Amino acid sequence: MKTLKTQSREKLKAEYQIYLSRQRGLSEQTICNYCSFADRFLDFKFGEGLGNLSKITGIDVADFLQHVTQRIRPYRNKTLASGIRSFFRFLFQQEKIETNLALGIPSVAQRCARRIPYHLAPEHVEELIEASRTLSTYQWKKRNYAMVLLMARLGLRSTEVIAIRLDDIDWRNGLIVIRGKGGFHDKAPLLQDIGEAIADYVLHERKGTSRHLFVAYHPPHKPFDGAQVLNVILRQALEKTNIPRPKPHSVSNILRHSLATNLVQKGASLEEISNTLRHRSRTTTLLYARQDINGLLTIAPTWPLKKGGQL
Q: 186-213 pLDDT, tens per residue?
């Protein structure tokens, strides 16, 4: 039998879920993650039930963050701080606490990556696309080809590919709706080779009644639960090629990074790349500036400096 404290905690979680969904417009996965972080904090502070929220102090929050982050070195997960900050912002707005403790939760230090993201040369991108047509594990080769082509040509994330619905394709105007991160919807051009690949898949392979564009091979042909299928397809396609790659490596964003890098090397501006990849922050796009070797050479000072001069 549930205790009164347990019931109060479940009610609080339900209110928090509604807040994240209706007021913040977050995805189901993000809501699940944020609720998990809230649960972990409440476990840390009160145990299984729910104590007096007004008694929570900044020291409690600091102790919890230290408790979590000291388990992993180095700790670079920004999601934890964002999730806990969101939880205390909710508590303050709902007048469950008197002080907005969210203001005192620092962000995880985000230093610029030391290494340029792993990417493929244009000829290797085409080789990988062709390799995706021949995989034996996933029998629907036309589907595999269309999904990989979307990632290569438009820089879609794997989650964005499996989220596409039949109604998102505007065949008449040559546009496709991209259901991106944070619930944002963007329109991208439906390039000719992409349109032909999707049409070929829909007409000759696709089955079932789901409104999602890409569905599973086995009956009842449901949409994919997650994006892992694309990681597997890309990994197996890579194994069929002679493309050099680091080990271990992550394949989920290879084509996205490759598109951005190849655009830089062709002279595209950072604004054009940001628009292509639908970045919400230009800081993210700056990562690819290091690929513009010719541009960097124009601002690099000569070395060694003459007469022992300093910058």
A: 899 999 999 999 999 999 999 999 999 9
Neighbours of 52 (CB within 10 A): 9
Residues 167, 71 share a domain:
no
The model's pLDDT over 62-111, given as tens digits with 9 standing for 90+, comes to: 888 888 877 555 444 567 888 899 999 999 999 999 889 888 887 655 55
Residue 112 lies in a domain: no
CATH number of the domain residue 183 falls in: 1.10.443.10
For the chain, what is the HEC assignment? CCCHHHHHHHHHHHHHHHHHHHHCCCCHHHHHHHHHHHHHHHHHHHCCCCCCHHHCCHHHHHHHHHHHHCCCCCCCCHHHHHHHHHHHHHHHHCCCCCCCHHHHCCCCCCCCCCCCCCCCCHHHHHHHHHHHHHCCCCCCHHHHHHHHHHHHHHCCCHHHHHCCEHHHEECCCCEEEEECHHHCEEEEECCHHHHHHHHHHHHHCCCCCCCECCECCCCCCCECCCCHHHHHHHHHHHHCCCCCCCCCCCCCCHHHHHHHHHHHHCCCCHHHHHHHHCCCCHHHHHHHHHHCHHHHHCCCCCCCCHHHCCC
32: CATH: 1.10.150
Closest CA to 236 of 143, 161, 133, 147: 133
157 and 74 fall within a common domain: no
If one counts the domains in the chain, the total is: 2
Residue 305 lies in a domain: no
159 and 291 belong to one structural domain: yes
Bridge partners, residue 185, by sequence: 179
